[in-house]
User: Which sequence fits this backbone?
């Protein structure tokens, strides 16, 4: 695709993205994307919600209700939007994203960030292993559909959400914080990238605060178009489970002697998670996904292979111990069991 310049655009082109729609603005990461976009004062943020939805939405967003089985309601709701974030719940019907992409094309949306916010999209084997083959194929199909329709995509790779993953329980980052138990994958020293929810929100807001296109061929400043049909790599921390436990100790005032520490090979745990999931236990999906990312082959450490966008976007360096403290508070408040119960109920 040839480089586009603002100087060559038709009259009325503003070279900034102002109108932004979010599907899932009340969700785990969508909430932070909406809030951070609103903080900039540069964007009008519209939450596209299912009619009858009871999701609590951030103050300041416009709300448009749609019926995902009635394409025209989606098209009408997306008209005038320049950029669309799709953040779907894991329980959403599999064809939801394809319906949204088709409607966005008809509505004239230019940019889409597809439902991602996770693993390295460039690592197709990893995606196939952690998302299941149909899941990986759906992701590839989404970006292909966006391009075929003449729109552009940006894929956010942030890896696992830190506070979520640490507080969810043993199948995720291996921690059962209320009972002071941890299962180390292999020796617990494999480091992976991980991001907080708010860092994902900041990245989205900072990206859309850039100019859309370079002014001309001499303009070297960062633009949204720099990531056209590419992956936006961000991260809060590059840490191991051992690092996490040391940080948890600071939050709780404990030491290793206060904890039950066990070890399990990542390949064994990955297979065990697959078997659990195939038997109908949703927890097995998390176990397989997380243990696969901790394989000692470096798949979870994408900053060793690609440049992070943190500096270009002006993202702050975060306090690891403060993020851990929040996760500990979430775990002690029962976040993990409640979340599992909610997902299980929605799947049945």
Assistant:
């Amino acid at each position: 695709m040839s480089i586009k310049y603002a100087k060559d655009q038709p009259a009325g082109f503003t070279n900034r993205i102002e109108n932004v729609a979010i599907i899932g603005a009340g969700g785990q990461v969508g909430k932070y994307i909406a809030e951070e976009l609103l903080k900039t004062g540069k964007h009008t943020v519209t939450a596209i919600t299912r009619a009858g939805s009871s999701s609590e939405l951030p103050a300041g967003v416009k709300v448009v209700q749609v019926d995902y089985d009635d394409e025209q309601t989606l098209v009408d709701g997306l008209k005038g939007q320049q950029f669309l974030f799709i953040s779907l719940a894991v329980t959403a019907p599999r064809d939801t994203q394809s319906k949204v992409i088709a409607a966005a094309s008809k509505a004239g949306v230019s940019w889409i960030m597809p439902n991602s916010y996770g693993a390295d999209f460039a690592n197709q084997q990893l995606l196939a292993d952690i998302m299941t083959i149909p899941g990986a194929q759906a992701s590839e199909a989404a970006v292909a559909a966006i391009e075929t329709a003449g729109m552009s995509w940006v894929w956010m790779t942030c890896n696992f959400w830190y506070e979520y993953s640490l507080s969810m329980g043993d199948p995720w980052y291996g921690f059962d914080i209320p009972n002071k138990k941890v299962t180390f994958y292999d020796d617990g020293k494999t480091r992976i990238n991980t991001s907080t929810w708010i860092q994902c929100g900041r990245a989205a807001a900072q990206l859309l605060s850039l100019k859309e296109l370079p002014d001309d061929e001499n303009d070297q400043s960062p633009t949204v178009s720099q990531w056209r049909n590419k992956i936006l790599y961000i991260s809060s921390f590059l840490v191991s489970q051992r690092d996490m436990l040391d940080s948890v100790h600071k939050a709780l005032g404990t030491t290793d002697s206060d904890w039950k520490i066990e070890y399990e090979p990542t390949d064994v745990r990955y297979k065990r998670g697959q078997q659990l999931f195939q038997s109908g236990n949703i927890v097995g999906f998390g176990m397989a996904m997380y243990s696969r990312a901790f394989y000692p082959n470096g798949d979870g450490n994408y900053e060793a292979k690609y440049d992070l966008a943190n500096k270009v976007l002006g993202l702050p360096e975060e306090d690891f111990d403060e993020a851990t403290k929040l996760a500990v508070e979430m775990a002690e408040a029962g976040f993990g069991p409640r979340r599992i119960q909610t997902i299980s109920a929605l799947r049945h």
Remarks:
- The chain has two domains: 17-159+196-233, 161-195+236-305+316-347.
- The chain is about 40% helix and 15% strand.
- The mean pLDDT is 92.
- The longest helix spans residues 133-148.
